[in-house]
Amino acid sequence: DSGVTQTPKHLITATGQRVTLRCSPRSGDLSVYWYQQSLDQGLQFLIHYYNGEERAKGNILERFSAQQFPDLHSELNLSSLELGDSALYFCASSVGGARNNSPLHFGNGTRLTVT
Amino acid sequence: AQSVTQLGSHVSVSEGALVLLRCNYSSSVPPYLFWYVQYPNQGLQLLLKYTSAATLVKGINGFEAEFKKSETSFHLTKPSAHMSDAAEYFCAVSDQNSGYALNFGKGTSLLVTP
Hints:
Number of helices of chain B: 0
Strand content of chain A: over 45%
Oligomer: heterodimer
Number of helices of chain A: 0
Largest interface: A-B, 28 and 25 residues
């Protein structure tokens, strides 16, 4: 058990809809990272938050947004969903921010299916 | 940006045989490198990490990796494969340009046959 909790485990929704994925990092971790895993694209970094502030963006679509709350949990919001958004979405946490190279600890992911 | 390339999307070994999973990195600065394993329907689990303290890094489950700067490689090995090693393995490099997010390779699926 990595200590990172993601909910829900599975999500099935229709095209055009909006969903919210939730992540609780390990106790004490200030950094949260979101990744998308699909068969064709592999593991893609989406966005990084550190202690409530956005620190870096990766291949995140404009239809997607995230935030990290004062209690350090994070939410990833996906809107105007398309079939191609179907994927596994992972959250990872680590102790450090931009100046710390600690490893990332991953949750078990949320499997999103868009029909 | 720092990146890694994993050679071989699928590797098959017999139980008890040597496991060798290849990873080459591209980085303009000394890299921080990682190997992760993913079992079916699970998240990624850290196997080991290289942070310049030693070129040979030992990880969990009997795995180790050697950092070779001259070859820009960080290959993962295990002397004797076990059936339980069957999984997807990912090499990753820490990208200082994205808050030290990890850039992952495409992954190598390891199959262990009896």
